[in-house]
Design a protein that fits this description.
Number of strands: 16
Strand content: 15-25%
Order of helices and strands: EEEEEEHHHHHHEEEEEEHHHHHEEEE
Largest sheet: 4 strands, antiparallel
Radius of gyration: 22 Å
Distance between the termini: 33 Å
Number of helices: 11
Amino acid sequence: MSSGLVVEGPIQIAEIEGKGRGLIVSQPIRAGEIVLRDSPILLYPALPQSLSYCCNCFKSLQNRGSVVSCPSCCFCLFCSPNCTKLALSSSHTAWVCRSLSRLREFPSLQTEVYFLIAAYNIAALFPSKFRILMSLQGVNTDASIAASLHSLVASLSPPHIGEFPFSVELTAALLAKDKLNAFGLMEPLSVEKSGERSVRAYGIYPKASFFNHDCLPNACRFDYVDADTEGNNTDIVIRAIHDILQGREICLSYFPVNENYSNRQKILFEDYGFTCACDRCKVEANWSDEDKEGDANEEEVDMEEDSDEQMEDTGVTEGDSGADFPHAYFFLRYMCDRNNCWGTLAPLPPSSDGTPSRIVECNVCGNFKNEDEEIVTDTNDEDGLDLDD
């Protein structure tokens, strides 16, 4: 199925041996450079109709005086009249409104139901977006779950979707796309709750879905959902962690980099259907079970002295596995040291004349750190990177 999806900028889609499609660098990329900015083709809530977020853009409604209720269901809230208008013609149509109202009777429903409602809604309204969704890779889901969810959606009398006949097979295919490609828009870090972060909403970002995983990523994702902007606050921004050579693959980590070997392999196999064989995993696979029990903090303490001696005043080139501990330097330089954060640090974009920034930003807690002065600055404005850059 042709989607017409085009990836622009310093990256291109390529077939990666043993991985399928991925994104490679078409020209050298500097540390902090924006590799990709992507908008979602659909968004759906992680929780049923929360009163804490706008039902269209998912901004926090806290301290907002212009909150507007849906004129039909009164359950969905919007952050502004403009968001209300946009939602009623796109993400919160009459059918979506009726469906969500009916589902309020079943508060324990799986999140996948909300994805299917959003997916069948865009199939009716925006066939080109639906074709893009269907062109993405997927991972098989349980047939009995797909059948059950299909019956539930069928009871909601979904709209006519033209070239895509409504069927259990289509529902199963959609669930497969969602499982492999959904990105979570996260709540801010809660240090008081041992670093717990809940998911506010999920989105399908078609271009970003091509990024493969690596346990030592060379790029990381930033989102600024609560940024004080109009229209693009749900975009995600991918920035290079360090310089990346032309021809190299760009990879993200699908979870915090402090996860140990066993947990990483379990998550990747159960959620994404593959076993990771990156440089870090090849090394840690040979560690004893006792070693594998340690977390990133313990590894960092054990390796800090050797790492400083071996890597002081040296850069990191993507794919450089070092010796016994390819991730020692990564932890020391690119993992946030804020308590219970475990986020990844990436420099701010280079200046217009190409001068690299010495300020790094954490993609979890949002703190900024001056590499020279080793000072962590707390930021509470949640604006983050200028989304209009």
